Amino acid sequence: MSDKIQVAVVGAGPAGSTAAEVAARLGAEVMLIDAKAEIGTPVQCGGFLPEAHELRALLPKAMLPAALADVPARYVLHRTKIQRLYSPSGSCKEFAVDGRVIDRRAFDRHLAHLAARAGARICPATRARAGLESIELSGHLRGAIRPEVIIAADGPHSGFSRLMGNSVGERGICLEYEMVDVDIDSSAAEMYFGTRYAPGGYAWIIPLGPDSANVGIGVRASYLGREKLPQILDRFIWDHPIAGEKLKRGEVLAVMRGTVPAGGMPESIRQGNVLLAGDSAGQVLATSGGGIPLAMVAGRVAGETAAGFLQGRASLEEYELNIEREFGEELGRSVHIRKLVDLAMKSDRMMDAIFAALLPEHMKMIMRAQLPDALCRVRDLMQGSRLR
Ligand SMILES: Cc1cc2nc3c(=O)[nH]c(=O)nc-3n(C[C@H](O)[C@H](O)[C@H](O)COP(=O)(O)OP(=O)(O)OC[C@H]3O[C@@H](n4cnc5c(N)ncnc54)[C@H](O)[C@@H]3O)c2cc1C
Questions:
Q1: How close is the Cα of 376 to the center of ligand 1, in Å?
Q2: Pocket flag, ligand 1, residue 175 (CB < 6 Å)
Q3: pLDDT digits (tens, 9 = 90+) for 271-330
Q4: 233 lines ligand 1 (CB under 6 A)
């Protein structure tokens, strides 16, 4: 193996595979490296992905990669029409959102396949130890490589981000069950709030079909106290007055754990020849925890920037500017809204009051990281108009 590589992409999730595909398609020599023996496995995701027209409304300035806009039907397990939110006391607001529920395992393999087809070399079962100029590989491939550009798409616990000196941002910790034989409304993706079932976060039911669903909780460690995630998720499934009726007769087929960045981008997403993309760069909408769309847009931008740099058309510094232009505003606003809602999440009464004050269309705006006037009014009430 030659140690001279043009682009090494670490991580074959949605960010890394998209970056590898784009850079290779633009003529770069690319290695796509993942520690997983089988790309896409194990899955750590609910699989919810808004339809392309919803994503265009969510990220109006971003150019969506084709693989994000047009997911082939064979990777779409199910489609939903509604997003439904429950307050701690059980009142409900819903609005129309066209959603796809994708088979993440197959989707990640598909994205890596697209990268391979574009000419990238795929290296599974290979762990990359972060260095700012060289990377030490161990596992199936061994040795040191010195890429001209490193795209670090190595997920929420990124070694490259740590090496760059970034602090560990706010995170949600998640536990999810794939359940069957449940009695759900399969047209709706549901979110449930309340300190008893999802402290500092929310619980979800994402339908996978008429009687199967991904059921999970994403909470923040600082809100957890002594309880462990399985205790809380089991309580949601067994005891929640509304969700319990849908779930408690079901069976669990799979258990998944994972971490979701919730604090936006770190101090730096580029240093020297290293570009961070996706979860490694905190590129997750903090209002929903949805990370696939931003990861793929950032992967596209990273791949284009790397190829442009190698062809002498662009500098790597442009990466930050390009990311900022495509979705910086929406990501920043989602973190702002999350911080605001954080204050309310400490008290079920406060959350109930906010639910009561907001119309369904306001909720939809919030999920799209837009700040409706109604939420500004709630914020002003809560904070004595200090923040506006
Ligand atoms: C429980 C849960 C449910 C979620 N549900 C949704 C959802 O419904 N919709 C949504 O949009 N988002 C969801 N997310 C978030 C979404 O999964 C992530 O935002 C998305 O996967 C980010 O993609 P990525 O490519 O940046 O990182 P990842 O998908 O995490 O990929 C990173 C890759 O890097 C590899 N890697 C890490 N370190 C190394 C190393 N040193 N060497 C080699 N390889 C390495 C890993 O093996 C991994 O394959 C969920 C997250 C969790 C935890």
A1: 32
A2: no
A3: 999 999 999 999 999 988 899 999 999 999 999 999 999 999 999 999 999 999 999 999
A4: no
For residue 218, give the ligand 1 atom closest to its CA: 1
pTM over 0.85: yes
Cα–Cα distance list, 155 to 195, 265, 297, 376 (Å)? 28, 13, 15, 33
Options 3.30.365.10, 3.40.50.620, 3.40.50.150, 3.50.50.60; CATH of 4-44+104-168+263-334: 3.50.50.60
Q: Which residues of the chain have pLDDT under 50?
A: 385-388
| Nearest alpha carbon, ligand 1 atom 17 | 45
Tell me which residue has its CA closest to atom 19 in ligand 1.
291
173 CA to centre of ligand 1 in angstroms: 13
Closest Cα to atom 31 of ligand 1: 13
Residue 372, exposed/middle/buried by CB under 10 A (0-12, 13-18, 19+)? middle
pLDDT in tens, 171-196: 999 999 999 999 999 999 999 999 99
Handedness of CA 48, 206, 357, 291 (dihedral sign): negative
Query: In angstroms, how far is the first alpha carbon of the chain from the final one?
Result: 56
d(CA 43, CA 40): 6
User: Alpha helix locations (H) across 229-277?
Assistant: 229-239, 243-247
Instruction: Give residue-wise pLDDT tens across range 242-270.
Output: 999 999 999 999 999 999 999 999 999 99
Instruction: Quote the pLDDT of residue 387.
Output: 40
d(CA 28, CA 151): 13
- Residues 352 and 302: beta-carbon distance below 8 Å: no
Ligand 1, residue 281: give the atom nearest the CA: 26
Q: Is the CB of 44 under 6 A from ligand 1?
A: yes
Cα 153 to averaged position of ligand 1 atoms, centre (Å)? 9
Domain residue spans of the chain: 4-44+104-168+263-334
- Binning the chain into helix, strand and coil, the percentages to the nearest 5 are 40, 25, 35
